User: Fold these one by one.
Assistant:
Number 1:
Amino acid sequence: MNFSEAANTGLFFQLAPLLVFLPLTGMLINMIFGGKMSEKAVGTVASLASGSAFVVSVLLAYSLNAVHGELHTIPFAEWIHIGTLQLDWTFRVDSLSTVMMLVVSGVGTLIHIYAIGYMHEDVRFKDDIKRFRRFFVFLNLFIAMMMILVSGDSYLMLFVGWEGVGLCSFLLIGFWYDFDTLGQKSTANAEAGKKAFIANRVGDFGFLLAIFTTFWHFGSLQFDSVFEAATAHPDPVVISAITLFMLIGVTGKSAQVPLYIWLPDAMAGPTPVSALIHAATMVTAGVYLVVRSAPLYSLVHSASYIVAMIGAVTALFAATIAVGQYDIKKVLAYSTISQLGFMVAAVGMGAYVAGIFHLATHAFFKALLFLSAGSIILGMERGHHHLAHGHGDHDDADAHHDEEVFDPGDMRNMGNLRKQMPITFWLYMAGTLALAGIFPFAGFWSKDEILLDAKLHAEHFPGVYWLLSLAAFMTAFYMGRQIWMVFFGKERTEVAKHAEESPPVMTVPLMVLAVLAVFGGALNLPFDGFHNLGHWLEYTIGHVEGLPLDLGVAGISTVLALLAIFFSWLLYGKNPLKEGQPDPLKKPLGFLFTGMENKWFVDEGYKALVITPFEKLAKFLSIDLDWNFWHDWFHDSVLYAGFKWLAKFLSEPVDMGIINAIADKLAEWTQRSSESLRRMQNGFVRSYALSVLLGVVTILGYLLFK
Amino acid sequence: MVPVNYYIALSAILFIIGAMGVLVRRNALIIFMSVELMLNAANVALVAFSSANNSLDGQIFVFFIMTVAAAEVAVGLALIVAIFRSKNSINVDEINMLKG
Amino acid sequence: MTVDLILFLILAAVAIATALGMLLSRNAVYSALFLVLNFATVAVFYLLLGAPFIALTQVTVYAGAIMVLFLFVIMLLGTEELPKGEGLNWQKPMAVILAVVLMVEATFLIFVQEPVADLISNSPSADFGGPRAIGELLFSRYLLPFEVTSILLLVAMVGAIVLTLNKKEGGQK
Amino acid sequence: MDFELLPNLVTFFPLVGVLILFFIKPDNKVLVRWVALATSLATFGISLVLLQNFDASNPALQMVTNLPWITVANWNISYYMGVDGLSILLILLTTFLTPIALLSTWSAIEEREKDFNIFFLMLEVGMLGVFMAQDLFLFYVYWEFTLVPMYFLIGIWGGPERIYASIKFFLYTMAGSLLMLLAILWLGINQGTFAVPDLIALGGIPAGIQTWLFLAFAIAFAIKVPMWPLHSWLPDAHVQAPTAGSVILAGVLLKMGTYGFVRFNLPLFPEAAVKFAPIMAGLAVVGIIYGAIVSYYQRDIKKLVAYSSISHLGFVMLGLFALNSQGIQGGILQMINHGLSTGALFLLVGMIYEQTHTRDFDVYGGLWKIMPVYGTIMLVVTLSSMGLPGLNGFVGEFTILLGAFGSEAIGSAWYAGLSAIGVILAAIYMLYMYQKIFLGPEGSIVETVKEHGHALRDLSVREIITITPLLVFIFWIGLYPKPFFALIAPTVDNLVAVLQAAMH
């Protein structure tokens, strides 16, 4: 049997479980033997594990193409069977899931390779070489979980992966759990991980409720049966409930308003993690979920509208915050939230192809941006390291720590880096232009498709288009701001002057990503005869109208983007920021900028409205109610003291006072009477006889005279 | 022709005299004799009833009483002898070891 | 007033008198002798009441055997007369009072409440109370009690012997 | 071999060890330990034979021993032992946890080891008896019997407040049991038999009386579970008990309460169960949320775990009173899960306590770096307790919530919806605990221990051996729960049929 035959007969579909088990194998190898392996070997094993999953994904996609996109399910194991509840682990290979598989494993593999170089240096800066292995263990686990998520054939398996990636996210955000983002000893990173997990759990809570509702109304959790049952008996209330519950899950996982707060903090994780999990793959799971549940969302317009609005609001809201950030990764984080908003808005409006298209291109360029940012940060670290060791003693590590804390990620510390890091600069430019939506970069095509859909559906989804356009404008602005601040102007610190370019192991994967960021638009060009992604997805989500390029929409968005970049040049490029100078936007925008800078005080709001009340409640319940009241007061004061009082009452007044007194008096009386009666017992026989006679007389008398 | 009442009255008088003997005398031997007198008083009554009722059962009873009295006297006197040996007295007022 | 009655009254007077004599004598020997006289008087009553067997038994057992035993013990111990002692002073008046009360009660019972008017005939049937009649009855109806009395007597005999055994001298068994 | 007698053998086999222990000098600690361990392992082995001979497809009682025991007047008390789907897993859990708990005491218990082991084996007898007994009176005897060894385990080998805790534990349980005894006597005398299967077959208890009987049983069991608000003895008992005691207390003793509900309350009083389902579910939900929130604010590791038990057992109760197959099967499986996860948590807490002698959160931190194996194992157990898919906790919680969500008896999806908040809260307090101990910079305890002349070490081989079996099951149930469900499904389906009949 040759290759194409195997593809045509669907033999390759049987490989689907390998998607999960190849990364798991890599993880286990590193976990068990990694301690004795060199860093290179560990990294290679992990990258191979991920890369082989990519190969399998390609094979699956190829086979699927060969069988014209016909859905294939591969039963793997039975899981929970109770009565009507039949939950199995079945792999699902269709055009939607293969897109996700390809993105996850493809971008994932590149990031694995990049991470070999990145982590090599990172663990040395943080002085804990052992953790290198752990990073790749987690990373492989993440790929496995993500594969479970996208390849599952039921909501439950999707949920399993959903939770699994949440765990990996927690572990990787808190990877440097004993530091903060500046490399100081702190619990900050661990807190960030916890925050992410908990915010995700809130989303999971919604997802769980959606699952329960689905099961009890449609009798199954398997996608096709659910959709069949839902379309057969479309009960708007039930479907609204399901979709809105799911939306809670989406807002958690895909970082939408109001649960997005964890994503900026998630930047505490090493940069490859930010790129892989918190930009390219995991956070898009929510988008995937909505597309997957398209048959449900398309049944109720109101739910779709809520989804679209949440996406659009998030897109704009996060973009405004991004404008006010100074940390290079924070800007990208808010940008990610904003872009996720675009996707969610798109899928909310039913523009599934546009959403998935943007998902893919975003994965490319945002991963590129993050990784480049990582490269920049490491470059700065190298410069910092160079300076510290150039001036001082090599062994004087303590002095090094006592120095003023240096933030290698703060853009105010950078400037003119294009000189020191030219490769990174060009790579970053590619990513920036893609994100800003400049023709002909990947972002242009995907974003325009979303905007076009929003324009076309403005009737049903009013407001979305304007919000998104505004967000697109802001996007271009903050990216321009970033470019000017980081790469142009003058070096604002010594460190920036000594920044060093990254090694090829990091830059080569970036180049691959850059190519994808530039040409990724080819996936779904809006011209007749193209629409490749659209046609591909048609196998799964039904017929899609391939929209032609609308010059109006494209023109407006391009003009907006260019305008934004021009503004940013005016503010940041023409007069480069000086050392210690406040942001030039601060003056014209005033308190608005303060809001942006401080993320609109959302974290503080959560703290005041949710966290503090919760802690107060917890304190009240545990200290006051449970312990002081119920445990101490009720049990000790009421029950125990009451019992004691009763015991005392019964023992002293009642027992001693009454019962005992009676007994005492009785005894005393008996004693006294016997004392006198004792004299009768005088031992004289005659006295006894007298008594007998007395008795006789008395009894006889009684008998006689009774 | 003597009414039974008279015999019973006689019996009662003898009995009371016997009882008085038990109560007022200190000599154990005399107390004993008084007891015998009381038994006799009872016997008189029994025989009188027997005769009045024309039934021999009463006399049989008297017979048994005599037997018992004989046995009692034998043991009782033996006791008195034994007490006398240890106390050297038969004054019952000196024998009060059972005093409470 | 018939001869019987007169005879009865005389005998009764004698019986009471001897009984009182027994009671009041200082000397135990006199008491014993008074008692013998009393028993003899009572035996006469038995004869009058048609109980010749009992009457003779009374004479032999009581007046004879028992009283001899008494006299023997009195002599043996040498306690004809007790030395004067304080004794129980309140005992005597109490005893008298009780005796009187008992007497009153008895009188009331016998003559007022339950007067038994039956007269005792002086001429009972020939064999009434004779040894034959008594014997027949003893060996038929009262055989078991009769036999039990033998055991009683045996026990009494053994008891008497054990009690009077002089242990100090390590007497023989 | 006559397999019919196996339940008796399993139940009383630990007594063999007790007997041997009587003849060993207390100074010979090594021998004492090994004898006790070998006995408990042998018991586990026998229970595996029991499992092998257990016919999973048969919903009825199996391997029954039924002998008349006390037959005075119209009392028909019998020695009635048997196994069915409701109890088989709990029996295995008991025999499985006992050797593990015993192994954990090798370094933790230093005084009067012989006595400790004897009490422990006797406790095992009591617990096994509870799960095997099919006669109400016999059940009561075993039920009370477990109190005594546990009382001494806490009272002799416990923490500083042990006397208070042990007496509280004893009195609480005792108080509830007395009501149950009254109900048992009423049933036995009025129905003419104490045998549970016969009582179920007889049925016909008027609804009004069912209510009272149900309540009498329910209070006894609710105290044991413990259901909110009768939980106040639990933190004391758990915190004061020695590690092995906590493991057994959380792992098995609490399950006696939930087991009591499913074994007696549901089948004996189906109408009352249906009537009370919303109330019991409501209490369960309050317990879930309350326990979780209160856990969050604890500063003592053991106390946190103790309160989390209240929350977890709330899930079990919610599942049982969903009165449908998903809920009840999930509930029974969750009993096992909780036994494994919380048992493991207590073991792990005990292991660190042996090194540091403190359970105060504030001094901990950053231990993952120093104790990577310990940190990883603890992470797995924590996640299992939080209900992460792929680990055992999820399977139980998911089926319970699913069952409760659509439960006809509870009547509203709100209960399950609210208790799903417990899933969020579980993440909050569990991660909080994990972070406090293992993440962040090194806590002051590291220095404190160093000052005492020895550094913190990672788990020893014995400790890893102790904990590994639990981990195996944590993964096994999480990944492939089918064989476990297969054991309980037929019996539960029978029970659900009875309950369904009562509902309509």
Note: Residues 308-387+411-522+550-597 of chain A form one domain.
Number 2:
Amino acid sequence: MDFLATLVNHSPALIIAVPLLGAFLTPLIGKINGKVRNVFVILVVACTSFLIALLAYNVFTNGALSADAVTNNIQTYVFGAKDIGTPAVRIAFEVDAMNAFMALIAAILPLAAVVYSWAFMKDETGQDKYYTLILLMTAGMLGMMLTGDMFNFFVFLEITSIATAALIAFRIDQKYSVQAAFKYIVISSIGALFVLFAVALFYGQYNALNMAVIGDSIKYTMLDKIALVLLIASLALKTGIAPMHMWLPEAYGRAPSSVTVVIIGTTLGSLYAMFRMIFTVYGKHIWDLGKTMALQLPQLLGILLVALAILTIILGVFMALKQSDLKKMIGFAAVAEIGYMLLAVGSAIATISLNESGVTVMTSAGQMALKGGIFHVLNDALDVGLLFLVAGAVYFAAKETSLNKLGGLARNMKYTTVFFLIGLFAVSGLPPLNGFASKLMIYESTYAINPILSIAAILCSILLLATFVKVFHSVFLGPKIPKFSNVKEVPKSMLIGMAIIAVIIIFIGLFPNLIVENIVKPASEALMNYGLYLGGI
Amino acid sequence: MMSKRNIVGIFFFLVIALLFVIAALTTHEFGHPEKSVIPDMDDHIIDNTQTETGANNAVTSVVFDYRGFDTLGEATVLFTAVAGVILLFRRLKK
Amino acid sequence: MSEMSKIVKTISNIAFPLVLIFGLYVIAHGHLTPGGGFQGGAVVASACAMILVAYGSVWTMKKIKEKHLSLFESVGAIGFIGLAFLGLLFGLVFFKNFLLGEGLIFSEIGQGLSNINTAGVLPLMNFAVGLKVIAGLFAIILVMAYATNKLKGGEN
Amino acid sequence: MIYNIPYFAVAALILIGLYAVVFKRNLIKIVIGITLIESGVNLFLITLGFRENSVAPIHTAGTTEKTLMSLPVPQALTLTSIVIGVAVLALMLSLVIHIYRHYGTLDVRKIKEVDE
């Protein structure tokens, strides 16, 4: 058990270091043999997922594996020394329940992606670099989700965006993918540079880079307000929230499907960072200073986020209706799904107010909305990821993604059809799958806050279901098309990749309370109790 | 010849410009970082770089020791860019 | 890029070793003077870029392929992260400066400009990063120059 | 306000870069705009760390003597940010080369015309 405790103690560093080392070794191992390299990459990602599972278990149980590493459900790791010292000079990772929750998402998606890639990428050139970049993306995404240092966050943001842009342009012979990659890198480097400017503003005022230290010493100066605006704008840009959503469906649609699954994780990493900035770094603004200010920051921020969210949902759903390309259509559905998360969290922020005894609290509806929003982050990653993998399987088998030309694939591709049905029901929120569980929480809580929001959300969800049913009909049902009569079921590795996600979707759909009670509730409490995070350093 | 898109663009541009100008006005006086906060972290590094890291050069001690993990990330960024560029200019057929 | 005239070639032949030495000096003295792995690596990479400009990308591509440079870069990166892992092994913390004060190489504490035998793993990390930056930047320049050469129809 | 002139240079650099990204039609100019924004942010970091009458943060005469030194952390951050900028620039330029290969032009309007 001693070894296990040591492993858990060092797991925050190893979670980043193992995929990085794997990425550096991949070009060397690729020299030996393609199969050896694939096995190696899958092993590296599986190792990482295992470490994440250990870390998350330790954090959620408050130290069941290594009690001395965890206090108040927060595990810290300082690089280069035993502790961070009185001025926090060193980089520290601070993993609380919310970080662990996000890391769990990042544990599932790359694993499915690399297993799926084995057959999906079989005939492509440049596989060494492809796997290297996938591992780098995984490492960067995990770094974004675990780090407790502002500048370190910027570095990982850039690692993910460069790796992502290169992979979006993987099919360089198709002009649209090159274009989508260029758009993506322009947008994301502007976003990242604004984040860096905000970091510099913090540094100039507080002479600190650690999130907890900044959050502890933050005042309500003009520069803090500017930094908040820049952070929210740039992270919204990177998350694909309307009106800055145009890059997202293109990037999702033009990248190879196995890459898209990981890009979903990176997008959600940016979303997580936005929540972390609002709830923790600006926690004092939202909870303590809010009661003394004439202009109520939480309400203002909440209403702004809700407005953006509604716009995102409506734009996403209506643009999805118009699409004639399968992958772009799922991309717009992904935009709408991000809107649902933002809607829930935004309305939760808007409910923060003074109660009778003069303490700032979030109402119970707001707390439920926050839980629903966080739960939906997990569900969206799984549902949209599964749909993209299915779309990739369709492309792999039929070499076509246009909805007008596809048809009648269900006869030859039985398993893929089943997976698409699972993804369809999950993403449009039908029972008994996971999307229903989280969307129900969002509907209930937003109905208590403002019925109009809830009704708009439900209507858009129904429209989304209608769109997907139409797609299902035109791709998988319908008359047999002679061009696709020889289509075969996709190879086993791709089916396994899809099955990994589908099994988790069904599990969460069957036991939603298990997940909500054990994982989602601690995560939402970690966001609400910013004091614990600030006290972790 | 002002299209609607241009007007919206100019509006957002002006808003962002205002942000940066206000930031430039309200940042502490140039050359006097101690006017906003006492630079604890940097003074700690300057005073202890020789005893804690053994290096005379405080910048190198920050880059490779105090914030060594950032440098790993930075090296990774360069590695990523090289991998990406080679991937983009690869031969498409085997 | 096609090759340039004899004058340019001769001058760059003379300048190349000088720039190379200066770059290596900057890398080796990273913990004592301004500079370090990145800066020195960029200097050496610019020397390589000068050769590339003088002799043309086709000639350079015949001498060294980008996959070899990519391998060198991997080695540098593995060296860097390997030093961090050694810190975990010997110093019990990832990125621990485990050589400092242990009596092996680079173990002394800096007392001024003269002593290069200081700063623990920092000089080693400088070398690893330097190798990585030389190979990485040169690979980027070489690949892009070769690709644009092909784009123009290979006028070489 | 006269003391803040370096910060106005920062704001000017960032805004010129942003202007190029938002309003220019040539892809190379957009790329130049991004590098301008990046230079502005780097300049901001460096100016934040400057102390009047200070020397570079390198100990040249043993541990005992003390002189006023400028802040080392912003310099390290800028170093990191410059390398990241180089990486982004390399990738963007290779994407521009590919766009030129596909379309034969770098003008955004002409690229849109070809797409339709």
Note: Helices of chain C lie at 6-28, 37-55, 57-63, 66-91, 122-151.
